[in-house]
Design goal:
Blueprint: E1 14-15, E2 20-21, E3 26-31, H1 42-52, E4 56-62, E5 72-79, E6 83-84, E7 87-88, E8 95-96, E9 103-109, E10 111-117, E11 123-129, E12 133-136, E13 141-146, E14 152-159, E15 164-165, H2 167-172, E16 178-181, E17 184-187
Antiparallel strand pairs: 1-2, 3-4, 4-5, 5-14, 6-7, 8-15, 9-12, 9-14, 10-11, 10-13, 16-17
Bound molecules: 5-phospho-D-arabinohydroxamic acid (PAN) and zinc ion (ZN).
Residues 60, 75, 77, 91-94, 103, 142-144, 156, 158, 164 line the site of 5-phospho-D-arabinohydroxamic acid.
Length: 188
C-alpha cells in the first residue's frame, strides 16, 4: 500500500539447547552485584559477590525493535541455577511502563517459576519447564526464578511499546519468594 513505510522482514537463529541468540542487537548481562536489594538474605549475596568474583546471574539476548505500537519485542533469557542463602536465583522483575501490555514466556530449557503480582497485591505463580508457555496478562509484574539444576532458558515476546518499570516493584517487592530447602522447592 502507498504511504506505508514497510519494515523489512528478518529471521534470527536461536540455539535452543544453549539459550543463545545468534547476532543479537543487545546482550544484557546481570551479575550478582546488580541483584542487591532483591534477595531476602543480603549477606549471602555479598558472600557470592566477594568469593565468586561477581558471577553472571542472568543474560538477556534481544533484537532491538522500534518501540512503537504494532511491533513486537522478543528475545531469550538465560538464568543460571543457584541459591542465595536458601533462595533460588531469579531476575529482578518489572511492571511494563505501559501497564496494560501482556507478555508470553515459552520455556525452552530448565525449570522454574514465573512469579507475578498486580498493584492490588494479588500474586500468581506458574511452573515452567521445557515446552511450557506462560501467559502474563496486562498489568502483572513478572519475575522468573530458576529452581532447577540447569540454566533456565526462556523465549519472551511482548508489545514493543511496553517499556520496563523496575522502580515500583523494587519498592513493593513480590509477595512470594521461592526457596530450596533440603532439595525441596518451597514457595512462601
Ligand atoms: C523479559 C525480561 C528478562 C529479564 O525480557 O526483561 O527476563 O528480566 P528483568 O527485566 O526483570 O531483569 C521481559 O519480561 N521483558 O518485558
Ligand atoms: Zn516483561
Amino acid at each position: 500500500m502507498k504511504g506505508i513505510n514497510y519494515f523489512q522482514p528478518f529471521s534470527v537463529d536461536i540455539n535452543l539447547m544453549k539459550g543463545i541468540m545468534d547476532a543479537p542487537d543487545n546482550r544484557v548481562v546481570r551479575t550478582a552485584s546488580s541483584m542487591r536489594g532483591h534477595y531476602a538474605d543480603e549477606s549471602a549475596l555479598e558472600k557470592i559477590i566477594r568469593e565468586q568474583g561477581d558471577p553472571i546471574h542472568y543474560e538477556v539476548f534481544e533484537k532491538i525493535m522500534p518501540q512503537e505500537y504494532g511491533h513486537l519485542c522478543f528475545g531469550i533469557s538465560r538464568l543460571q541455577p543457584g541459591l542465595v542463602g536458601e533462595e533460588c536465583f531469579m531476575t529482578k522483575g518489572h511492571y511494563h511502563s505501559i501497564l496494560e501490555t501482556a507478555e508470553i514466556y515459552l520455556c525452552l530449557g530448565g525449570e522454574g517459576y514465573l512469579v507475578m503480582k498486580t498493584q492490588n497485591g494479588d500474586c500468581a505463580v506458574e511452573y515452567m519447564k521445557s515446552g511450557r508457555l506462560v501467559y502474563v496478562p496486562p498489568c502483572w509484574a513478572h519475575r522468573s526464578v530458576n529452581t532447577g539444576e540447569e540454566e533456565l532458558i526462556l523465549l519472551f515476546i511482548y508489545p514493543a511499546e511496553a517499556g520496563h518499570n523496575y522502580g515500583d516493584i523494587e519498592k513493593e517487592g513480590f509477595p512470594k519468594r521461592i526457596f530450596k530447602r533440603a532439595g525441596k522447592v518451597v514457595i512462601e
